Amino acid sequence: MNIKARAELEGITPYALGQTIEEIKEQYGITTVRKLSDNENVYGTSSKVREAIMQASANLSFYPDGMTTGIVEKLSSHYQLDQKHFLVSNGSEEIIRLLTRAYIDKNDEAVMAEVTFPRYKTNVLIEGGRAVTVPMVDGRHDLKKMQEAINEKTKMVFVCNPNNPTGTIVAKQELLSFIANVPPNVLIIMDEAYFEYADSEEYLDTMSLLDQYQNIVILRTFSKIYGLASLRVGYGIMHEEIARELHKVRDVFNVNQLAQAAAVAALKDQAFVQDCSAKNSAERDFLSAKLKELEIDSFPSQSNFLFAFSNRPVIQKLTENGVLVREMPLPGYKEAFRITLGTHEDHEFILQIVSQLFHERAV
């Protein structure tokens, strides 16, 4: 074909998606699949959300509110922060794209961890920028090396906290020091998609830094603990001047009406969020400890998933039994994978499968 795409697209591959539930059922002849591969909320969503969607469905012939007024008002009230600091998006990934579209020029650089959410790198490359990746240490961001990688070409740094896919966080004082030493003309993108799951005293509340550091952009989402992954609603919290620039490059009507109604209802039900967080913490401790007994270790997680690794074969056996996880190679280990935390019953089932596998190999 003689029609050539932009040179920046060479070498970029689409985001990798795993097999569907139906494909797994057909391939292995099973009827039940536990999808623990995409960090979704296994406890579903608030009943208030379903009611709100039903009411909003009466107005499907109208365009949605292009300024997402209802969500912005509710976020402002929830965080006790002026509305001018919020921008609502089609998933928090859209804000990543808007940031690179608005601020990355050709040959600009963006610093990020080597093992983190891959869409940072993709969006930087699409705009003609250069992604500078810094190796991690024990599954954590190496903020010292990331600081050293910043130069006169650097436009932004990405810190995913808790990090996807490792689930780890960076220590509070370490992150405070890093933020203080990033030049004010470099954007600090704090991706906090999983922050509602973090319960460590070492987790830094970056919201408190917005007045002091005008170059911070905080990304959060309704896809995870709120259980709205299929509706795609995210939001950014930032200085009003940054929000003004992003509004220039965002799509019109970027968040559909049903999604807007669902997000407002979800924010109202904080009891649901707290319940999910408590269950997640208990199951995180339980599963990580039990897997460790079976020689499957994991990085210390503050999210709703574990990054697990072992020198024993596990992934194929889980898949054959209808447990979907995301395979993610890790040097030095035979198998490594990210597994979304499920219900207690899910975890008992998983542990039974793994125990049987190890028993069979020992016989």
Describe the structure.
Residues 34-347 form the Aminotransferase class I/classII large domain. InterPro entries: Aminotransferase_I/II_large, HisP_aminotrans, HistidinolP_aminotransfase, PyrdxlP-dep_Trfase, PyrdxlP-dep_Trfase_major, PyrdxlP-dep_Trfase_small. It is an enzyme of class 2 (transferase). One of its GO terms (molecular function) is pyridoxal phosphate binding. By secondary structure, the protein is of the alpha/beta class. The protein has 2 domains: 17-44 and 271-362, Aspartate Aminotransferase, domain 1 (Alpha-Beta Complex), CATH 3.90.1150.10; 47-269, Type I PLP-dependent aspartate aminotransferase-like (Major domain) (Aspartate Aminotransferase, domain 2), CATH 3.40.640. The protein contains 12 helices and 13 strands. The chain has helices at 21-28, 47-56, 69-79, 92-103, 119-126, 143-149, 172-181, 240-249, 257-268, 270-293, 315-320, 344-362, and strands at 34-35, 86-89, 109-113, 130-134, 154-160, 187-191, 216-221, 234-238, 297-298, 305-310, 323-324, 326-327, 335-340. The strands form 3 sheets. A 7-stranded mixed beta sheet has the order 2-8-7-6-5-3-4, sandwiched between helices. Strands 9-10-13-12 form a 4-stranded antiparallel beta sheet, with helices on one face. A hairpin with a 7-residue loop joins strand 12 (326-327) and strand 13 (335-340). It is globular. The model has no long low-confidence stretch (mean pLDDT 94).
